[in-house]
Write a structure and sequence with these properties.
Elements (H helix, E strand, L loop, with lengths): L16 E3 L2 E3 L6 E3 L22 E3 L3 E2 L6 E2 L4 E2 L3 E2 L6 E5 L3 E5 L4 E3 L3
Antiparallel strand pairs: 1-2, 2-3, 4-7, 4-11, 5-6, 8-9, 9-10
Length: about 110
């Protein structure tokens, strides 16, 4: 059965097994969804799918590397653009300028 399941995305172990709708790795303990199409969707901190042009709110004070500036919690960022990489949102933060954000630190604003 392990031949038909993908290897663990964290440690590449070939010993993944299925538990309900999740796949689990016995070596590192990582759990992931068996639905591979869902992995390509960028989601905010509460699981809402994000798209280009969405408006998001920062949910945590974020220190800006190399400066003493901080993006304050509650800052509303309009017109985001999704990109590949660790910082998966490119945007212009009011009062700061262009920067990259991680989707786990934002929440989608209902339109």
């Amino acid at each position: 059965m392990t031949d038909s399941l993908p290897p663990c995305p964290e440690c590449s172990s070939p010993f993944a097994y299925e538990v309900d709708a999740l796949l689990m790795c016995p070596e590192c303990g990582h759990e992931w969804s068996a639905d591979t199409d869902d992995d390509a969707v960028v989601r905010d901190s509460v699981g809402n799918p994000l798209q280009d042009g969405d408006t998001v709110t920062v949910i945590k004070d974020l220190k800006i590397k190399g400066t003493s500036s901080v993006v304050k919690v509650g800052t509303k960022v309009r017109g985001i653009r999704l990109v590949d990489g660790d910082h998966d949102i490119d945007c212009k933060v009011p009062g700061v300028g262009p920067m990259g954000l991680k989707s786990k630190f934002v929440k989608k604003v209902a339109d």
